[in-house]
Amino acid sequence: MFKGILLQIVLIVSPFVFFAQSNAIVQEGEFGIGFGSSQYFGDLNTRARFNTPKIAATAFFRKNFGNYIAVRVGAGFAQLGYSDIYNTHNDFMQKRNLSFNGNIWEIALQGDFNFFRYIPGEPGYNFTPYITFGIGAFNFDPFAILNGQKYYLRTLGTEGQGNALYPDRKTYKSTTYSIPFGAGLKYAINEKISIGAEIVHRFTGTDYLDDVSTTYVDPSIFLDPAGLLPPKPAYYLYDRSYETGEPIGTIGMQRGISTQKDQFATMMVYLTFNLQRYRCPTAR
Asked: What region, left, alpha or beta, does residue 66 occupy, with left being phi > 0 and alpha being psi -120 to 50 degrees?
């Protein structure tokens, strides 16, 4: 009876032992680079339209833990921007006439979860869709162009940040967190090189990617009380509706939606180079 049970165990286990011994290539991790586009969503793009794609790039290291799970550390760059001229569906937003551009520099830690067993170099296991999510931090600094000159908006306080008349409005920080979540596909060309594509959406900790969040302020805060100096650049940037007609930025009027954080997404195509080690069967 004991010999019968032992024989059954051997028969069950032996295929797995054979597979482990035949799988001499062990995937340790991957270095990857990717290029693609990015898209902003927020107070200027309230309908989540993918109509202003800009340049994005990434570099990362992905550590594999088995054939289904991996953890990656990555650095990314993305350009973001939008303008109210695209809001043809909304008369108020077109008259508001605000716009911005900016660069995102991000670092992130993400977990990747494959749907299929993924083993580069093994026929039948060289393709899988996957999902990814994690947490990151990024730096941003929105700017606008006025009369051909670039102005960084954060330090101008276009919504009264840092002014004594608006003590509850503090200058927003240029660094905050991101929560990336997305999905992708990857395919192993051979045991050393893989290609992939993914879309990753980021929820963020700021409502100021676009420098727009709350209400219009009293324009007098941008003027010299003595009237000797010209208006500050913020005077011409906090409300740009004068460029399209009659100004609409009355004190206290809604300028943005402060209850919703801004977001952005990247769409990448990438190439990875696999790090491997070779496992030799134990001599007997």
From this structure: left
Read off the pLDDT of each residue in 61-74 and give the average, rounded to a whole number.
94
Q: Whole-angstrom Cα distance, residue 205 to residue 173?
A: 10
Q: Give the span between the Cα atoms of 79 and 96, in whole angstroms.
A: 23
* Cβ 76 vs Cβ 104: under 8 Å: yes
Give the DSSP letter of residue 159: T
Q: What is the pLDDT of residues 198-231, one digit of tens each?
A: 999 999 999 999 999 999 999 999 999 988 999 9
Q: What is the mean pLDDT of residues 81-100?
A: 97
The phi, psi pair for 11, rounded to 5°, reads -65, -35
Convert 214-276 into a string of H (helix), E (strand) and C (coil).
Answer: CECCCHHHHCCCCCCCCCCHHHHHCCCHHHCCCCCCCCCCECCCCCCCCEEEEEEEEEEEEEE
- What single-letter amino acid sits at 34? G
Q: What's the mean per-residue pLDDT of the chain?
A: 90
Residue among 52, 47, 58 at smallest CA distance from 102: 52
